């Protein structure tokens, strides 16, 4: 089987990261944690579970994840967030793929936990995530938020779910989304993008129809409704913040 490095970026993830590392035990040849100033003992917890811990500043999600990939010892890397877990089925799929790779990258479904429920429809599932790849032909984008893996070769799909075990409160979730929409607006301004006034209304509306009705988000009950409604609001706020910044430049 090809050697595998599991890479994780972290800051103040003491409550979650141990379970993330343990879910990759026996699969990874090494675990690399790139920490950016934790004050809750995260580095010590990671080291106690056998991870190689590196310290760095914070340049944004895309650049930080690429730094972690660059620090890996193996060409094949599996990128995880501190609050994610590998299911047994996904572990088996990854091991089989590494034993005889048919592609240079693999995606798999991510199941997001929201308001105490794993979402299985709408915007929260399958949430396809390309996280296993040969770093010689793939890398993370430079986006500071909403980063993605850019792969120069075709990618395959693996069976099994990646569990996103977010246990944050709704208040914390809203605060995080507020930061994300600000970063997205700043990136749009840097790229010279200016959305039309219609985008403020049409983007959230189209998003709701797509995820709540077409993607059957209603099957996830109240958590599904709240998750999609907040996603629509985030879309509205991103465009509103972009227009705010354009107006400030006049």
The gross shape turns out to be globular
Taking all Cα atoms into account, the compactness measure Rg is: 19 Å
How do the helices and strands follow one another from N- to C-terminus? EHEHEHEEHEEEEEEHHH
User: Could you name the CATH topology of the largest domain?
Assistant: Spore Coat Polysaccharide Biosynthesis Protein SpsA, Chain A
Helicity range of the residues? Answer: 40-55%
CATH architecture designation of the largest domain: Alpha-Beta Complex
Q: Beta-strand percentage?
A: 15-25%
Sheet of most strands: 9 strands, mixed
Low-confidence stretches: none
User: Would you state the CATH class of the largest domain?
Assistant: Alpha Beta
Please give the number of β-strands.
11
Tell me the count of domains. Answer: 2
CATH superfamily heading of the largest domain: Spore Coat Polysaccharide Biosynthesis Protein SpsA, Chain A
Mean pLDDT over all positions: 95
Structure in words:
It is a single chain. By secondary structure, the protein is an alpha/beta fold. It has two domains: 4-164, Alpha-Beta Complex (Spore Coat Polysaccharide Biosynthesis Protein SpsA, Chain A), CATH 3.90.550.10; 170-249, no CATH class. The chain is 42% helix and 24% strand. The protein has seven helices and eleven strands. The strands form two sheets. Strands 1, 2, 3, 4, 5, 6, 7, 8 and 11 form a nine-stranded mixed β-sheet that branches. The chain has a two-stranded antiparallel ribbon with strand order 9-10. The protein starts with a strand and ends with a helix. The model has no long low-confidence stretch (mean pLDDT 95).
């Amino acid at each position: 089987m090809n050697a595998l490095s599991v890479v994780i970026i972290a800051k103040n993830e003491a409550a979650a990261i141990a379970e993330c590392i343990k879910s990759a035990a026996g699969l990874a040849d090494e675990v690399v944690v790139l920490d950016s100033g934790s004050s809750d003992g995260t580095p010590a917890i990671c080291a106690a579970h056998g991870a190689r811990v590196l310290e760095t500043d914070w340049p944004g999600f895309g650049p930080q994840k690429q730094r972690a990939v660059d620090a890996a010892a193996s060409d094949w890397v599996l990128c995880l967030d501190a609050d994610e877990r590998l299911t047994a089925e996904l572990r088996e799929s990854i091991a089989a793929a590494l034993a005889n790779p048919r592609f240079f990258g693999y995606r798999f479904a991510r199941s997001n936990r929201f308001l105490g429920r794993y979402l299985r429809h709408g915007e929260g599932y399958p949430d396809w995530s390309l996280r296993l790849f040969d770093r010689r032909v793939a890398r993370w984008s430079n986006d500071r938020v909403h980063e993605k893996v850019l792969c120069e070769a075709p990618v395959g799909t693996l069976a099994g779910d990646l569990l996103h075990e977010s246990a944050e409160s709704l208040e914390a979730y809203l605060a995080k989304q507020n930061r994300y929409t600000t970063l997205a607006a700043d990136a749009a301004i840097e790229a010279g993008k200016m959305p039309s006034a219609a985008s403020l209304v049409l983007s959230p509306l189209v998003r709701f129809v797509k995820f709540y009705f077409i993607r059957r988000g209603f099957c996830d009950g109240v958590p599904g409704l709240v998750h999609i409604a907040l996603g629509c609001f985030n879309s509205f706020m991103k465009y509103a913040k972009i227009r705010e910044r354009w107006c400030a430049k006049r």
